[in-house]
Structures are given as structure tokens and as C-alpha cells.
Amino acid sequence: MGRDRRNQAILPLRGKILNVEKARLHKILSNEEIRTMITAIGTGIGEEDFSLDNARYHKIIIMTDADVDGAHIRILLLTFFFRYMKELIDKGMIYIAQPPLYRIYRGKQEFYAFSERERDVYLKRLGRVKVSIQRYKGLGEMNPDQLWKTTMDPATRTILKVRMDEAIEADRLFYELMGDDVECRRKFIEKNARYVTNLDV
Known about the structure:
This protein is of the alpha+beta class. Helix content is 42%, strand content 12%. The chain folds into two domains: 1-98 and 158-181, Rossmann fold (3-Layer(aba) Sandwich); 102-148, no CATH class. It is built from nine helices and six strands, in the order αααβααβββαβαβαα. The longest helix has 17 residues, at 68-84.
């Protein structure tokens, strides 16, 4: 209900898709979620079968919850696109939706915040008297109007274009972080753990 049916379609996925970095092609193509995605997009996959001319959509937006599980689903989808539909990234057709974390409201005044800092700015602006804060744990907590206003409406939404500036580095990271080499992944985590600011345990 929170979309413009004339030019927007939604393909719901059930949880996390298969990690294609670790799977053989026959297993990938037998995965129902991935097959549904391939059919919906219409381009086919791989170097021989892929055809951008057959794309049913020219903007594909990944919408996931703003939490650790949502981030994992997002990287699984990006791994799939990078390995099997890379031309969609090259042509600037893949985007990531940025849903808000908070709704701050008092009476008819309403603001959406995408970070704790932004939330605090709105609270300071409104004064803390009779102000309500709604923390969104996921997209499913929004009613259709809120979803449209914050995440679906082209005039007000925030989306990030996925760009392929450094393909070699991206290829290395996808292999190290999503592949079978556990030792590479362990070293990456040990090296970068000190930079973590938001840990969901």
C-alpha cells in the first residue's frame, strides 16, 4: 500500500538469501528467492545470458531494516548483483534505500531522523515537552503513509547509488568477507574491530 502502483513494484524476500560467493551455480539457480529475483528483473544472469535490454526496471532499490540483520541481507544481495548482474551496478541501476530510525512528533509537527545525532537536533528544536519519539526497528513498523513519505516517495526519500569505483578492491573484499576463506575473514575482523561504533549483540 505504501507505493505508487503506476511505476513502482515491490518484490518481498523472505529473510536472508543464499550467499552466492560460497555456492555453485546449480545451487544458486535452485534457490527460489534468487530465481524469483532473476525472473522479476528480466535480464538473465552471467556473461553469456545477461541482457540489459531485457531489464523490466531501470532502478532497483534494496530496502532492508536499519539493523545488523538488514545490513547482512543488503550485503548478500549486493554480492549476488556484483557476481551475476554486475552490469546493473556499472550502469548505475542499483540503489540502497535509507529508512529513518526515528519519528519525532508533537501535535501536527513531525520529523524523521536517520541517526541519533539527527534525532537529538529535532528534540532540541522542539523542546522536550510533550514530544513523542517512535524508534523504528524495521520497515514493518511503519504504516503505508510513513513508508511512502520516508522511503518510497521519489520527492522525499533518501537513496544511495551503488557505484563501482574500485572493482578490483570490491572483488577482493567480496571474496574475503563472503567466501570460504575463514582465515581471511578472521584477520579482517581483528584488524577492523576497533573501528566498530554500533555493535548489535
